[in-house]
Specification:
The protein is mainly α. The protein has helices spanning 7-26, 32-52, 57-76, 79-82, 89-95, 101-122. The longest helix is centred in the C-terminal third of the chain and has 22 residues, at 101-122.
Length: 123
């Protein structure tokens, strides 16, 4: 897979990243922070990958989704504790600390949204 910076996807990634940071710092509700954040994170990861990798959109979307599933599964096995990283806030945020099936749904819906938007606007 050739690497080539795609500025459009990089811009999307920056906007999504800033949105995620805003949610993490300022939103404390029971819907946007846990579910919209998880929905958006797979879109963010897709845009990051798409900004530097020229590959099939479906392949990238599914790869990102599988990566999100993997991280969520590792949360089920309390990987942060297993690795002794529980005292590192960044590890807790990036890897996560609690498994939830609804997170899997949010990741799935985010990936489906990426594929729909890509097909609708880029063919």
């Amino acid at each position: 897979m050739p690497l080539k910076v795609n500025s459009k996807y990089m811009e999307y990634a920056i906007v999504l990243f800033l949105t995620e940071v805003f949610i993490a710092l300022y939103i404390t509700d029971a819907f946007v922070r846990p579910y919209v954040g998880d929905f958006l994170v797979v879109i963010l990861l897709y845009c990051i990958v798409k900004s530097v990798v020229e590959a099939n959109k479906t392949t990238i979307a599914l790869s990102v989704l599988l990566f999100a599933y993997l991280l969520e599964t590792l949360q089920y096995f309390r990987i942060v504790e297993v690795l002794g990283l529980e005292s590192y806030p960044l590890a807790n945020v990036i890897i996560g600390t609690s498994f939830a099936w609804i997170d899997m749904l949010a990741y799935t819906l985010g990936s489906i949204t990426v594929l729909i938007v890509e097909r609708r606007f880029t063919g």
